[in-house]
Amino acid sequence: MSVYDEESASKTITLQDVATAAGVTVGTASKALNGQGKLRQETRERVLTAARQLGFRTRGLPATDHITILLLTSVIHTRFSIPLLTGLEQEVAQYERPVSVLMWRAFNQEHQRQHLEGLLTRPVDGIIFMADDTNLHPPVPLPPEHQQIPHLYVYGRITDHRELCLLPDDEQGGRLATEHLLSQGRREIATITGPLYFEAVHLRARGMRQVLLEHDIPFSETRILTGPWSIEWGYKAAQQLLERDPAVDAIFCGSDEIACGVIEALQASGRRVPEDVSVIGFDNWSSMVYRVRPHITTIDMGLPELGRRAGQHLLAMIEGRETPQGALYQHCTLVVRDSSGVPKHSLSLKDGVQKK
Amino acid sequence: MSVYDEESASKTITLQDVATAAGVTVGTASKALNGQGKLRQETRERVLTAARQLGFRTRGLPATDHITILLLTSVIHTRFSIPLLTGLEQEVAQYERPVSVLMWRAFNQEHQRQHLEGLLTRPVDGIIFMADDTNLHPPVPLPPEHQQIPHLYVYGRITDHRELCLLPDDEQGGRLATEHLLSQGRREIATITGPLYFEAVHLRARGMRQVLLEHDIPFSETRILTGPWSIEWGYKAAQQLLERDPAVDAIFCGSDEIACGVIEALQASGRRVPEDVSVIGFDNWSSMVYRVRPHITTIDMGLPELGRRAGQHLLAMIEGRETPQGALYQHCTLVVRDSSGVPKHSLSLKDGVQKK
């Protein structure tokens, strides 16, 4: 047991107790302990002495002015838990001192029992920084006395090559998608994708270009359409593409959302998917891939696997074992559904329709 | 600064260092420090001595055998973060020691900068237990030395009346829904709701009964249909209801999901919503209320507000201020859309159709 545990076993001393002992209000006691507000030095010292004598530090109240709240739940992303967490975060953000809300998911009573004590007594042993996108980011500045804490990055690439970053292999994902379209006999391939300031957009297009090059298939840059990550953009972009480039027989979409819009636009224009135009998405996001008919063939980045690896590497660091540095890329996988390949039964039909 | 901070500023001592110093493998060192596995007492002591001499305790590694990992992110419930977290949790669950993954959302760089140090050095100051449902639950057993840590419950009712629990007022929500249907001139009201083992199901129905009673409107228990929380159940239940009870002119649904199914079934049977049958849901869940036409009038439990209150009360406890005990209920609000009231333009039409 660390010093912390033993001390926190003593009877709870509240700020109220300290205030009473020092003969001041709770507000004054709080100010004095946090070194905030205007107080006579004599008052501040009386409060600090009372706090010391009562062993106040050892109770929950922060030595720094920081407060940590644990939100313990078994449901971490439901329509109930998310609004609750959001309201809670907004509330504490307005508090006079910094308050962080940590969310922990207990899978069941036993899991909770096993972990609760450790959670209440341990500070953090390691950190996983999860970025919003896979673009290049500077390393997160750690407080001086915590430079050494084991940490790594997932889903974000870091400028410092000594930092370990785990990333999906967007370029290989782009290759995979393109090879699949070629395997379906398609040659007139276009891509409708996300905003150019996403590195993933460039990498996926690069993977596509490389494969086409390797197969000596000419490619015009006008067949790359970039815009927002949305169904609407997919729909609009597909319309533009069909107008100026009706020969296109396959579309590689930068996301499943975009693919939804693309398929709707193709069908609205009287084209059949996949017979006339083969479509493939990216993400394998279930609420999108099953949203349209035909269901969407897509590329899966294997995010759960990325999370598993992050756990493996961080635990190795915490144990002091050797761990790799720099960016590690995880292969994407192809998930075949109906939007890309031609259903057997309509093969003959397709041959009738295909390129002339 | 607590003892913790000062010590953790020293050079990182890894388990490898301890193992080397004690002349054992990392695995043995780990076992010895965790009091696990079969080891000769002499070996265990050699490791513990080495750890003490190197000041190993003060490094990240747990004094208990518990490890805490912080997952720092700005996106807590996206299609990227959730699978990542899930994979990470699965991985660490298989680890030889208990590992908890705490999730913290940093809104921006500045927010992160302000909180990171506190997060890395502070143990937990208070706990909010979020239940999966509002049913009656026993209090969560806290480790003996943490009985006094400030805590409260949200979205769950606790058997111990000294515990503070914050709950939505399901009964009042049921009253609100029923009063709204009456205000629309409806008198033949039925309810299609969730499983009977949810307390909320009983409370919402009770609120409905009370209002009908107050208005001397007879009500038959056969007009309460309970089943799963699903669109499918809503559809099936509405079909059953229409067959055996065609006079019904309003349906109070236990959830917006159920309401979706109910509206689809009504329309499939040729009834108009709301002209022929008025429908109201529960939850104000955006992915449901806009999923059908007409959009769903519903009851909102005010979950963000519930979260804000949880924050207010817990911070008051942490400060040692007086806080209430027992269950506090928060009023629900009515959100009027098109499924309940009759659009002005079709009023005359409605009068023509309504009860002859």
UniProtKB/TrEMBL annotation, chains A, B:
It comes from the Bacteria. One of its GO terms (molecular function) is DNA-binding transcription factor activity. The keyword Cell wall biogenesis/degradation does not apply. Residues 13-63 form the HTH lacI-type domain. Keywords: DNA-binding, Repressor, Transcription, Transcription regulation. The keyword Transport does not apply. It holds the Pfam family Peripla_BP_3. This is LacI family transcriptional regulator. It comes from Reticulibacter mediterranei. The lineage of its organism: Bacteria, Bacillati, Chloroflexota, Ktedonobacteria, Ktedonobacterales.
